[in-house]
UniProtKB/TrEMBL annotation:
Name of protein: protein O-GlcNAcase
Domain GH84: 17-292
A Pfam family it matches: NAGidase
SUPFAM superfamilies reported for this sequence: (Trans)glycosidases (SSF51445)
Sorted UniProt keywords: Glycosidase, Hydrolase
One GO BP: glycoprotein metabolic process
Length: 991
């Protein structure tokens, strides 16, 4: 048990509260230029500290022993000087824990030598970080030290004394309550640190979890007692290095200002992207300067509030807690703080800045879904950590999950199953059933290679140099705790380790190596290439598929390269010519081309941006409004059902139908969603045109992805408005495990689970509302490397008016140089003819600002379609294109297409027609380079087919038709009957 600390042994230094930023994330570090800009902002906002600790800056962690070169020393000295000029305490941090031998005098001397060098640069504050390492000592250390904690204490105290007792911080290996073994009060490690570490050394702490939703006074008092000093809070609330799909633009929340008196300080570890951190840091500054005693500091102009309340959703998705009208000026409220921050942030968008390098987040590629059960709160505790060992299950059987390319066995769980009191038979049975089919991860994980490069942020003012990646295999830690959730058994998407992949957490994104990179043969360490700017271009971009979940920051794995370096050391992301040409493009989305080309960002635009990317455990009001509006429209779509075949034709609502108040309400809410879509499109265009290209490049992949999914939802609603589906549509479109599933939202907002359990955030929740649970691969695409305001919109097609557009797209895909008169319709008759005449057809098109550029035609009843082909269409084509014509001045391609009509003998097996009852044809003009355009179009079409009770689709393609085979392969279609025919391949997929 923990030793009770007496009052005189607890060092209370709240009167000297420090507040600032720790650059402690994984991925691409900030540049020297960005750090100096940060220092100016911290001074302006009344903050006082900065901690240099970028995990992937190679002389901070991977190569911590190496001294700085003259050039690097100049940059680091410049940073230290700039911090002093702005009244900031610059903490230089090292992370030696990967491979240091604590008992080696040589190793400790290397550590002292490195810090001595930095001290000569003018640095007077330091930190040693022992986070994200294996808590095991080497054999040599075991002979000297009683425990791992004693080893760290010895080195920390010795270095602190060697440096003449400067300002000094230590980040422990057990840096949050979830990692304390067995818990905070009984942790031998934490108690040793508290009792043995010199009292003047501050200890960093992330709270209850790695990313803590709420910080309570009780939890801070508990760790203060154990560590004999108030902690410095390393706050990961705005950290986003664990999820490529999320960036956090919401205010500093869920921390009462009463904590200020109980803490030594707060250092926020924010988004990887520098510019988007404006709101998070600005609102933290407001929070840190409020006065709980009601005495206003007249030197402050902030309007802040100590009132932190639970902001719960109203029925229609709005936020129930708005800014109270009775707040005193010296009190903190997150929404008022956000309002202040947005007003100040507006200037940054109009501030001309050039983009130099990428944001590269250390996200792995995980190609298959592995749902993890989140179960009823009946005193159950299921954990993948070493801190909790009980689970409410009778047996857990290792299973094998197969992927398209490989399979791997689940590892033994190590979870002890104990009876609960009182037991709940039905809930326990649910748990047992889920556990028996879901692989569970433990600490005994296989070795994974590191694929990310080590980087150097001290080689240039504005660039980041990429060094060769480490080649040694590294063990992969993973820690996720699942416990105490609301009623309802919901499998959640959780990334588990796979061959060639790794799992990322804010302070645990890189595995721990068996040996230091310094002990490896170094290769090409003199590389000076700047990393190319593409948010999704890194080879370790992540995705998690399946069961209605979505990917991290969705990337089409077939489109990106694993090369982390650009082709030039002087590479500029976009030239002025490229930027101007992009700005000059019209935007064909909902009258956006009527907007002035360079309209500046407004408060409303930035507020919407923050709402779409809010906080780890809550969505902003705008985002939740979209969720609720779309779900309501989908749920109540039956009121506009027409109950008749449409032949793919959209139509307006009749005056008679609009007299029905339910129908009127449905279309009013559809208009509301359409207006929100327009607002997002307008935000997207304004942002693309803003002068601050650096900020644009950092935000663009997120807003591009959000705009795409919101536009897709709106397109589907437009199709629903045509009413071409059965009254029982609700039986087909519920979807699995959405925001509105029982317990999902409550579990997400509870903070009981680390946020990477809910990978993808709002964008993933929006995607899950489309009832195509097994088609999440269609949400994998790479954003444009150079930001463009060119967008593609989807709408229901009208065969009568759009047929010539569809035929034109088909011609562009399959035409040859010989496809001229006298047979102008041959190509489209061959590939589209019968579908254009089919009843029960779902037809959609995608268009840019000028014309239709893609289409999908899907027959809901393939059996009926093939009957029509044989009895009607093929005979008519044989008459239209007699064989004799193929002998006169026709190309071989034309002759082959005419011959197809006369030799047609396709017989699709009955089992395929049963499991995949629909058939589809899709196409897009070759000039469209955006892979998301066709994928979103197909998603809309499959969703519409599902609304009609069709859950599988196929297409029969000639083996020689390489264009079609490649197209459908990219869309995730697979061979349903390998070896079926030497002439045809039948591709299909379910949804």
């Amino acid at each position: 048990m923990a030793e009770k600390a007496s009052d005189d042994t607890i060092i209370t230094r709240s009167s000297n509260f420090t507040c600032g930023v720790v650059e402690g994330f994984y991925g691409r570090p900030w540049t020297t230029e960005q750090r100096k800009d940060l220092f100016q902002k911290l001074k302006k906002w009344g903050m006082d500290s900065y901690v240099y600790a970028p995990k992937d800056d190679y002389k901070h962690r991977a190569y911590w022993r190496e001294l700085y070169t003259v050039e690097e020393a100049e940059h680091l000295t410049g940073l230290i000087t700039a911090a002093k000029e702005n009244g900031l305490q610059f903490y230089y941090a090292l992370s030696p824990g990967l491979d240091i031998t604590y008992s080696s005098a040589k190793e400790v001397s290397a550590l002292k030598r490195k810090l001595d060098q930095v001290s000569q640069f003018g640095c007077s504050a330091f930190a040693l970080l022992f986070d994200d390492i294996e808590p095991e000592m080497s054999s040599a250390d075991k002979e000297v030290f009683q425990s791992f904690a004693h080893a760290q204490v010895s080195v920390s105290n010795e270095v602190y004394q060697h440096l003449n007792q400067p300002r000094f911080m230590v980040c422990p290996t057990e840096y949050c309550a979830a990692r304390a073994v067995p818990n905070v009060s009984s942790s031998e490690y934490l108690n040793t640190l508290g009792s043995k570490l010199l009292p003047e050394i501050d200890i960093m702490w992330t709270g209850p979890k790695v990313v803590s939703r709420v910080m309570t006074l009780e939890s801070i008092e508990e760790i203060t007692e154990v560590m004999r000093r108030p902690p410095v809070l390393w706050d990961n609330l705005h950290a986003n290095d664990y999820d490529q799909k999320r960036v956090f633009l919401g205010p500093y929340s869920w921390r009462s200002p009463e904590l200020i008196a109980k803490l030594r300080g707060v250092m926020t570890n924010p988004n990887c992207e520098y510019g988007p951190n404006f709101v998070g840091i600005h609102t933290l500054a407001q929070w840190s300067r409020c006065n709980l005693d009601g005495k206003r500091d007249l030197s402050l102009n902030d309007s802040v509030s100590a009132d932190i309340k639970l902001e719960t959703e109203t029925e229609d998705g709005g936020m129930g807690e708005d800014i109270p009208s009775n707040l005193t000026p010296n009190m903190y409220h997150p929404r008022r703080a956000l309002h202040n921050a947005i007003n100040d942030w507006l200037f940054e968008f109009s501030r001309p800045k050039q983009a130099w390098g990428p944001i590269m987040k250390p996200q792995p590629v995980i190609p298959i879904p592995i749902p993890v059960p989140i179960l009823p709160s009946i005193n159950t505790c299921m954990s993948l950590t070493t801190t909790t060992t009980t689970a409410s299950c009778s047996s857990l059987t290792p299973q094998t999950v197969a992927t398209s390319s490989n399979s791997f066995p689940a590892l033994s769980t190590g979870i002890e199953c104990q009876p609960l009191n009182p037991p709940n038979t039905s809930q326990l049975q649910t748990l047992a059933e889920v556990c028996s089919t879901v692989p569970i991860a433990t600490e005994n994980l296989p070795l994974m290679p590191i694929t990310a490069p080590v980087m150097n942020s001290l080689a240039s003012e504005s660039k980041i140099v990429a060094l060769p990646p480490m080649a040694t295999p590294l063990p992969l830690p993973i820690t996720v705790s699942l416990s105490s959730v609301p009623a309802g058994s919901i499998p959640l998407p959780l990334p588990l380790p796979m061959q060639g992949a790794s799992t990322c957490e804010p302070m645990d994104c890189n595995p721990t190596p068996n040996g230091s990179p310094a002990h490896l043969a170094k290769t090409a360490a003199s590389s000076t290439e700047d990393i190319a700017m593409a948010e999704n271009g890194s080879g370790n971009s992540g995705n998690v598929l399946g069961n209605g979940s979505s990917t991290a920051m969705q990337v089409d794995s077939t489109d990106f390269s694993s090369n982390f370096q650009a082709t030039s050391s002087n590479m500029v992301v976009e030239s002025p010519h490229e930027r101007d040409s992009e700005r000059g493009e019209d935007n064909g989305s909902e009258n956006l081309n009527e907007m002035p080309e360079k309209a500046p960002m407004t408060y409303e635009d930035v507020a919407l941006l923050c709402d779409l990317f809010y906080l780890p455990f809550e969505h902003g009001s705008g985002g939740t409004q979209i969720l609720h509006d779309f779900n309501w429209l989908k749920t109540h779509a039956h009121v506009v059902c027409r109950n008749h075949p449409s032949n793919g034709c959209s139509s307006d609502v009749s005056e008679e139908a609009m007299k029905n108040p339910e129908v009127q309400e449905w279309f009013d809410r559809a208009t509301k969603l359409n207006d929100m879509t327009k607002a997002v499109n307008q935000l997207f265009t304004k942002l693309t045109n803003c002068p601050n290209r650096e900020l644009l490049h950092e935000i663009y992949p997120y807003i591009w992805d959000a705009r795409g999914i919101i536009s897709t939802l709106n397109s589907y609603v437009k199709w629903l408005g045509c009413g071409n589906f059965p009254h029982v549509i609700g039986n087909f479109t519920l979807g699995n495990f959405t925001w509105f599933s029982k317990g999902w939202k409550e579990t997400f907002m509870s903070g009981e689970h680390e946020p990477w359990v809910f990978r993808g955030g709002l964008i993933a929740d929006l995607q899950r509302l489309l009832p195509v649970d097994s088609c999440t691969d269609l949400f994998l695409y790479k954003s444009p490397e150079v930001p463009s305001n060119k967008v593609y919109d989807i709408r229901p097609a009208n065969i009568l008016t759009d047929q010539h557009h569809i035929r034109s797209v088909c011609q562009s895909m399959y035409s040859s140089s010989c496809d001229l008169d006298p047979l102008p319709d041959l190509t489209t008759d061959r590939f589209l003819g019968c579908l254009l005449q089919t009843e029960q057809l779902v037809c959609m098109v995608v268009e840019d600002e000028v014309e239709v550029v893609g289409y999908t035609l899907a027959a809901l009843n393939a059996k009926q379609f093939y009957t029509q082909m044989k009895t009607d269409f093929i005979p008519s084509m044989q008459t239209k294109y007699p064989v004799s014509e193929s002998q006169y001045n026709l190309s071989s391609v034309q002759q082959e297409r005419i011959g197809w009509f006369h030799s047609y003998d396709l017989e699709v097996p009955e089992q395929i027609l049963s499991s995949h009852p629909g058939t589809i044809n899709c196409g897009i003009v070759p000039s469209v380079q955006d892979p998301s355009a066709l994928k979103r179009l197909v998603v809309c079409t499959l969703t519409a087919m599902r609304a009609n009770g069709c859950f599988g689709v196929h297409t029969a393609i000639k083996s020689s038709d390489l264009v079609s085979l490649e197209l459908y392969n990219r869309l995730g279609f697979v061979d349903l009957n390998p070896g079926y025919s030497s002439l045809y391949v039948i591709l299909g997929r379910t949804f």
